[in-house]
Amino acid sequence: MKKTEKSFDCMAFKRAAQLSVYDEIKEITHEEELTYFRSKAQNGPLGEWWSRRKGHDAHIPYCAEQGEEYQAQKS
User: pTM for the full model?
Assistant: First the structure.
């Protein structure tokens, strides 16, 4: 089996991203950490989609901000 030379190391990229996040959150409280991740989710590349998700537990804070009542979808 011939080994292919990679131009992109996915695992190295993932580990660098995780280390960056760790450095940002290592000295903050649990509540600040939740706020950090919620902000990243809402303002990141998929933020608009995230905000429109209905019936998803992560959507609760967005509903509350909009004054909407949250009701979980029954499966």
Answer: 0.54
